[in-house]
Amino acid sequence: MAQFSIVGKDIPRTDARAKATGTALYTDDIKLPGMLYGKILRSPVPHARIVHIDVSKALALPGVKCVITGEDTPKIKYGNWRLFPDTQDEYPLAVDRVRFVGDEVAAVAAVDLDTAEEALQLIRVEYEDLPAVFDIESALKKGAPVLHDNCPNNVSVTRKIEYGDIRKAFKEADYVREDTFRVHAVSHAYMEPCSSLAAVDLDGRITLWTSTQTPYIVQCLLASTLGMRENDIRVIKPYVGGGFGGKMEMRPWEFCAAFMAKKTGRPVKITLTREEELIAGRRRHPMKIVSKVGFKNDGTLVAKDLKIYLDGGAYNSMGPTATFLCGNFGAMLYRYPNYRFYGQHVYTNKPPAGAMRGFGAPQSLYAAETQMNIVAEELGIDPIDLRIKNAMRTGDKIPDVATISSCGFIESLERVAKMSNWKRRRKSLKDGEGIGIGCYSFISGGVFNWFNTQYPFSAAEVRVFADGTAHLLTMASDIGQGSDTVLKQILAEELGLKMEDIRITSADTAMTPQADLGTWGSRVTLMAGNAVLDAARKIKQKLFGAVSARFNLNVIYDMECKDGRVYAKGRPERGMSFGEVVAMVQKANRGEPLVARGSYTPRGKGLVTPAFSFGAQVAHVSVDKETGLVRVKKMWTAHDCGTVINPSSVEGQLEGSIHMGLGYALCEQFVMDKGKTLTNTFLDYKIPSALDMPPGESACIETYEPEGPMGAKEAGEGLASPTAPAIAEAVYHATGYRCMDLPITPEKILKGMKKKAPK
Amino acid sequence: MAQFSIVGKDIPRTDARAKATGTALYTDDIKLPGMLYGKILRSPVPHARIVHIDVSKALALPGVKCVITGEDTPKIKYGNWRLFPDTQDEYPLAVDRVRFVGDEVAAVAAVDLDTAEEALQLIRVEYEDLPAVFDIESALKKGAPVLHDNCPNNVSVTRKIEYGDIRKAFKEADYVREDTFRVHAVSHAYMEPCSSLAAVDLDGRITLWTSTQTPYIVQCLLASTLGMRENDIRVIKPYVGGGFGGKMEMRPWEFCAAFMAKKTGRPVKITLTREEELIAGRRRHPMKIVSKVGFKNDGTLVAKDLKIYLDGGAYNSMGPTATFLCGNFGAMLYRYPNYRFYGQHVYTNKPPAGAMRGFGAPQSLYAAETQMNIVAEELGIDPIDLRIKNAMRTGDKIPDVATISSCGFIESLERVAKMSNWKRRRKSLKDGEGIGIGCYSFISGGVFNWFNTQYPFSAAEVRVFADGTAHLLTMASDIGQGSDTVLKQILAEELGLKMEDIRITSADTAMTPQADLGTWGSRVTLMAGNAVLDAARKIKQKLFGAVSARFNLNVIYDMECKDGRVYAKGRPERGMSFGEVVAMVQKANRGEPLVARGSYTPRGKGLVTPAFSFGAQVAHVSVDKETGLVRVKKMWTAHDCGTVINPSSVEGQLEGSIHMGLGYALCEQFVMDKGKTLTNTFLDYKIPSALDMPPGESACIETYEPEGPMGAKEAGEGLASPTAPAIAEAVYHATGYRCMDLPITPEKILKGMKKKAPK
């Protein structure tokens, strides 16, 4: 493995000081002269026709500068699946009809927030109620209320995968079982509520500062919904306080801020309240998962038949992609010689589900990993042994998906077994305690171009200077995950510079190189990282040429950039300082600065992803048998994310993932009543607190991913999946209660508890 | 001449709406959180040793966050003649010694302006007075006080030019005369006083928003005086309210704002008062000019021997360049077969003179043109006829300078004669009225690399998009002269786009392409324009290739970009819309955006400039013989600026030049007492008002300058020169008073008036 100077080191994050000192400006911190404050009126009913909207009283309120409804807008639908325009089903503001409680109906802009809020109350909307559906089964019933006329059965997207011979395989299997799982919706619960600030310049161009994961996607969709040209819109991502998938689309408030800024000529800022986030924000897809598996008696997995129904809520949002990916996650972790998947994305009159950390995997893998644990018990094989037997390995091929180019799964299983003292601990626990395992595989960015971008998937520009510094420009978006730091590390490593030698400018659609698809699918390190490497290598070729010419080096010499110098490898005296070589290259080009552009687009990588990560996690819980309360005592994690670029960042991702997994498994849920979300504050919607966090131990199984920059692959999302099934198995191990429908509440445990736990 | 769609049209200026509506943000309009206000303590004495500075009381004042003196700084000298480090003679804050009243001694930063001002008064400086000199003669005397130890004779730069055989020529001349002229200092009197705002980020990088003509030069010199790396400093030029040469160097307040921001960790803004501008700001060089000319009786100019002594004030500033250029301006307008120049830059204990609109030419040409008028009278030849006889023409060569590649001087003379009805009017004026002529030639940017830049003289990046828009990035600085508009026009013209299709980003040293030397010497239209053209042409080649491939065009086809389309010339149906072709090029490059970089560096253009402009101006004045008051009744101007890119902007330059010329000729002057400037407000320092402006007529003699973009050359500075000599000649014509020392005050007229005027 390569020797690195910067990569693999615990480099302090580029944004750490600004965030720690409070100087980091988030969108809501930005104030512009003459700025107006916007608010959005939302539907109070789950499904209705809009008969009439009267905004006259609102408009008459002193201080109100603008009131808009869907009728004022160009009425252009949008959606992220731009490749299939039929799937674009959402208006920025409702036209004729609302489809969920919280659907955006009107917007106001006023001189202050109080006035804007008062104005909302003065808008009179006459609704004609329509019948509504709130779950998958009802929505799929014949004669069910139809949400979108072009989908009379409420199914907006279906997807099928099939390979091998599934019927034959099940016939030949020794052991077959089918289970139905239900998983629920949860919130991203990012610290920073969404905020957008739009300003229009005197040429009519819009600048939008917005809390987003995807400046480029917002730019494109905002242009299309406003009927403007893409490049007359500039999207800037300020500091962002978390996204987790919840900020990866264009959102109605982005449109409303921009549209009202255009109408008034004044900047308009809209910041959501936590209540709005919780009642109307995107959420993780609830799903119904029917999984049938076949095994040989020796534990060899021979077939899987998987049906997943996604409860999409009122609009597609990222649902089509989720439907697509669920089928892949269903067959990603183990060798599935025969596999069939059928997925449906179903409309219901609830807030739309969207992308959320893991994006299909937490649901799909909750079912798959729990079922694996059931099978292990039934076949009398240790759950880890059963997994090792069927585990994917480097070089394995998933039909129509990809060949696994690096895989540390077996090592992860072995390592986590060792760390947790699995076999011994599993047998020696006290009453009311249990341990369980869950695993994951995840993608390192998506390959399928559903957004139909015309640009490379990621790009970078690197400018190097005679003073020994470099400037990295990239549209990649740091939303707290640390990509600015990681990309600087990659560049510093490749050019032999220090972190402080590098200035970075990122996530500004007008200034940074076109384009980058944004932060989602754990794509940034691999894709933006590769783009940075591509640019850096072009720079190096020029530097190497100059040094070769200057020292009259034999062409066979290998060269390197290291410690601020450029020289012949093994002959360090034949070289010069980085800055001196840049100056020489510049001279050789008659003064032209040394600038290189790099890009990355995955090609020949199938339909899903260029690289796969793997990991295994063991949870140790104790369950209070009087109350059903679960306490997670410890988590052990071993995972393969390729080369670790920044150990602290990887550790942070792991901790955050466990935190979210804990909430997903045990306590987070939306309580709803006829489409209305009742858990609308953090008092009611319960995320685990710092005190709920278990201690943990972790290990990175370092593989070298050939497609990744310096061998790296994803580390941010895969880890969101194993926690829930590991805890569920531990609870089962402790109590005999097997959770088939998340979350694992005390009520369910008390009801399902067996007198004698299965250990 | 080429047919243009955008060039030559009266396109509204890009900055017009922002300025008219008051939304344009100048540096002083920018406020940052936690910002401190800085003030500078200046020397009250013209020449002294600093014995001791006690800042303790100032530091103790509540609200004061920082007090610095030269001793706190790295004590690194700076100056624009970086190619000759010996000429860098100025410290950002005085070290040991002050050399003029107003010299920067200390700086404070406080929470508000009042506190900062109060703090200044609490700083105790003990000076030990040194003898001072205030004029050229005294400074050059033996035993005169020495300002800079490395220049014991107070001469910092000398320059000689000689060609032909000057002695022989004078011997063979029929008519020889020598005159001594004195010209005075005037102020740039820009509307926006200098302002600088520095912020330091948590990595220690500085961002400086500053009212400057030269962001790149400020970046480099700030880095060197702070001991930082150039690219750890980012200079951004916000809207600028005029410069006229007064904002083309690094200034002490830029250093002080940056240094105190570093020291305090808080943004620091320093905005000068008008009083500071007038007492300590740069000013136009006073000069003593001794000019000896020889003619044949038929009016043929045979020789000139020119000696110019520049009163540079206390530091070099742009004086070395002025010394250099004066010698060139002395022989630029007419055919000088034999020429000798000797120039000296002399230190005196006054505020340093610097660059100012025309930069050497107004002084040099006041003398040359006045002398030409004297000679015309003495030889009995009409002044315009004498000029036409000796006028430069296209193809003329100035030894060691350049070949004149386009010259509309004779046409200008003929045109202005016709417009003003010169010969008839000159004979038929009422008593107390007179008309006179003055002419100019000027440079279109400098060729001599005195700043020793390692970059092209100007650069541009052009990005074009499938939506039919383009983004132009350039470090060129619009300081009110309109370069953003002109560069957009050039790009729009070349790419066949509309002005509204182009976004421009300019004058940000971190974001716009390295580098541009700034706005001075009338260089921007030609140099940045050529860089833009270079980039645009690279874009076009790609577009042409795509259309050729798509329509299978014969390689001999010429192609063009026009009206938003790209097509075969003469076969417009074989083409596509601009955006479609961009999309096709992008496809052909697997998604890579279409971006091109262009640059311009003058090569093989001698030592002075790539192109010369010419013009002639006639003034009609009436003089009140009781009071000596001059009223300019009308001005006629004909000038050759090559292709006119924006007629209104050229007209604006002309009007502004006449306004400044009027002030230079008649009323502006610094009244000084022992080095102290007494005219320290606009009540005392008198610039002409709008009511003083004469009506005028003007004509552009359009030539096509082969080195200029689309045939264009300078239009902004040359016109600053002819007004004063034209008015002086008109006053002579009206009164018989010949002004040999500007300004032409009523007192001088009354004293010098002849009973019978010479007409």
In short:
Chain A is an alpha+beta fold.
Radius of gyration of chain A: 27 Å
The CATH architecture category of the largest domain in chain A equals 2-Layer Sandwich
What is the number of independent domains of chain A?
3
The CATH class of the largest domain in chain A: Alpha Beta
Strands of the largest sheet of chain A, in order across it?
A: 3-5-1-12-9-10-11
Q: What structural class results from the helix and strand content of chain A?
A: alpha+beta
- So what's the overall shape of chain A? globular
The CATH superfamily of the largest domain in chain A bears the name Aldehyde oxidase/xanthine dehydrogenase, molybdopterin binding domain
Task: Describe what you observe in this structure.
The structure is a homodimer of 759-residue chains. With 759 residues, chain A is α+β, with helices and mostly antiparallel strands. Chain A has a 7-stranded mixed beta sheet, sandwiched between helices. The first copy, chain A, has a 5-stranded mixed beta sheet with strand order 7-16-15-14-8. The first copy, chain A, folds into 3 domains: 16-22 and 457-600, 2-Layer Sandwich (Aldehyde Oxidoreductase, domain 4); 31-130 and 191-242 and 247-280, Aldehyde Oxidoreductase, domain 3, CATH 3.90.1170.50; 283-448 and 606-752, Aldehyde Oxidoreductase, domain 4 (2-Layer Sandwich), CATH 3.30.365. In chain A, strand 21 and strand 22 form a beta hairpin. Chain A has 19 helices and 32 strands. The model of chain A has no long low-confidence stretch (mean pLDDT 97). In chain A, helix 9 (319-329) runs parallel beside helix 10, helix 10 (361-379) packs parallel to helix 18 and helix 14 (483-495) packs parallel to helix 15. Chains A and B meet through helix 1, helix 16 and strand 27 of A and helix 1, helix 16 and strand 25 of B.
